[in-house]
Amino acid sequence: MTDKAPAPVSPAYLTAIRTSYDTVAADYVQLVMSPAELDPLSRSMLTAFAESVRAAGPGPVADLGCGPGRVTAHLSALGVPVFGVDLSPKMVESASRAHPDLGFTVGSMTALPIRDSALTGVLAYYSTHHTPPDQLPTLYAEFHRTLAPGGLLMLAGHVAVDEQLHLRPTQAYGSHPVSYETHLVPTERIAALLERAGFVVTARLVQKPHEGMDPRRAFGTVLARKPEPPLPS
Fold it and tell me: CA 137 to CA 92: how far, in whole Å?
């Protein structure tokens, strides 16, 4: 499932993400909703993904940017053979402590410690919005590399309604200082980049921002599939 390899030198944005989430890890667990608290549509998308990967094959699913492992555990309860990867060692410690029956490892989505074509599914759930847009092709190429032909991808998270947004928060999750940046792009742009990476996009969903939220922001989900090779003629 995973290969041991020397960790690559981290670009500055990855260092900022790792340091920030190590800082907020304890309060993050208390403040972020569990899957059971999500709205019905969001829960149904996770259920649909779980059913689809179970039907696609017996291989494992990677929950990338798994945080404290709550969504990882939710997929496991739905019958998915799943493990979690997160850039933050503190998040991985929290996930391992809360869910000792599941596997969690520290790693970067930019260079996953996973063999080629090893996965039946990849989930990136609210875990890519700190990635600069010019780095998204690197992430999507890694998702494509690690998925087996016919494997499924679900991307969900904060998106821009119309135009790309670049935000620089200074505090988060209990007023802890953070140094990461937030980059939001429209789902149309996400879908186009996934297609460029070799995926077939099968569904897109945009949920309007909650009342009182920034109207430029929304919640987006994109489902995609790595194509099977063509049959010999």
Answer: 25
CA distances from 52 to 72, 123, 139, 155, 195 (A): 16, 12, 22, 14, 20
Q: How far apart are CA 128 and CA 176, in angstroms?
A: 20
List the one residue out of 158, 154, 156, 133 whose CA is nearest residue 209: 158
Model pLDDT, residue 222: 98
> CA-CA distances (angstroms) from residue 216 to 27, 129, 204?
27, 15, 18
Q: What fold does the segment set 12-225 form as a domain? A: Rossmann fold (3.40.50)
- Is the pLDDT confidence value at 55 over 70? yes
Which pTM was predicted? 0.93
Instruction: Give the separation between CA 20 and CA 46, rounded to whole angstroms.
Output: 27
Sheet order of strands, 147-160 included: 104-106, 82-86, 61-64, 119-125, 147-160, 217-225, 200-207
